[in-house]
Amino acid sequence: MTEAAIAPAAAPAPLLSVGNLTKAFPIRGGLMKRQIGSVRAVDGVNFDIEPSETFGLVGESGCGKSTTGRCVLRLIEPSSGELRFEGKDVIALSGEGLRALRRDIQIIFQDPYASLNPRMTIGAIIGEALTIHGLAASRQQYEARIVHLLETVGLQADHMTRYPHEFSGGQRQRIGIARAIAVEPKLIICDEPVSALDVSIQAQVINLLEDLQQKFGIAYLFVAHDLSVVEHISRRVAVMYLGRIVETASSRQLYSSPKHPYTEALLSAVPIPDPSVKRKRVRLKGEVPSPINPPTGCHFHTRCPIAKDVCSKEVPPLKASAEGHLVACHFR
Ligand code: SF4
């Protein structure tokens, strides 16, 4: 056997690599609107996403998960840190490079209605991206492509002449998905894509996203505030609290054996379909503190049921508790 044959297989290069990403928004005040402080919405976030993988990013409203997603696409400019997509430095991109990135990375929004121009037909909404990126050589090809995209997401060819207000919430999200996949992206940022939908429709949209991943090998960064939504679709999940990742693990590890007290509390609120399985409900004290003036040390110490003195003084590093399972807690 040759040396090459026994060498371990190289780990696949990540599609997206996020390193120590930070985003601070200025706070302005006074008559002159001078900067009087800043909010660190994203505070040193690290993760990788592999090709065709779904990575879930979960946390309560205001934890920085959507800001992280928007920084990846440069819809919001990061304050510092590193973003690499297929090895390219995303922060250094401009002009044509940035346009190419926005073909490779697409986004689906929480409110599909707000993100669809009410004055444009569905055909024009989906076709816009084909035109911008020069993906249809003729009118005939353009229309055939739109019909194919509509059918791929479970809509019909004759929907292309209608307007967004003629569709239900679930159908509008399908239109948003058709628009996103029109340019054959490698990664889609799904920013709370099912939060505004009824539970039965949520499952249909998630199934559609899974089918599209199987067919086209698309990776997803799936942002959600609800752990139950990301459980089935994600291979790995990160939990965020006040701008920081507090736990990352495979979906199976996180749901069967959460380590961080915040993850435990979030999971304890997720209903279990089997009534014979009991889960102890962990009720957190108070509300999420203001990100303008977050608690010192571990941001979670003001609500943590097991906090000790050290927690308000020292930031717990994100360290391995098992293979592929990272947790930021002094006591776990
Ligand atoms: Fe709770 Fe302290 Fe762990 Fe933070 S570091 S999660 S406050 S025990």
TrEMBL record:
Name its GO BP terms in alphabetical order.
peptide transport; transmembrane transport
Q: Where in the cell is it found?
A: Cell inner membrane
One Pfam family per UniProt: oligo_HPY
Q: Which GO terms describe its cellular component?
A: plasma membrane
**Keywords, in A-Z order:** ATP-binding, Nucleotide-binding, Transport
Q: Which residue range or ranges hold the ABC transporter domain?
A: 16-267
Query: SMART domains, per this entry?
Result: AAA
Gene3D superfamilies xref list? P-loop containing nucleotide triphosphate hydrolases
UniProt superkingdom:
Bacteria
Alphabetized GO MF terms: ATP binding; ATP hydrolysis activity
The topology of this chain with respect to the membrane is: Peripheral membrane protein
InterPro entries linked: AAA+_ATPase (IPR003593), ABC_transp_ATP-bind (IPR050319), ABC_transporter-like_ATP-bd (IPR003439), ABC_transporter-like_CS (IPR017871), Oligopep_ABC_C (IPR013563), P-loop_NTPase (IPR027417)
Biological role stated in the UniProt entry = Involved in beta-(1-->2)glucan export. Transmembrane domains (TMD) form a pore in the inner membrane and the ATP-binding domain (NBD) is responsible for energy generation.
Query: Matching NCBIfam families, A to Z?
Result: oligo_HPY, PRK11308.1
The UniProt family comment states: Belongs to the ABC transporter superfamily.
Protein name per UniProt: Oligopeptide transport protein
Species, as recorded: Bradyrhizobium oligotrophicum S58
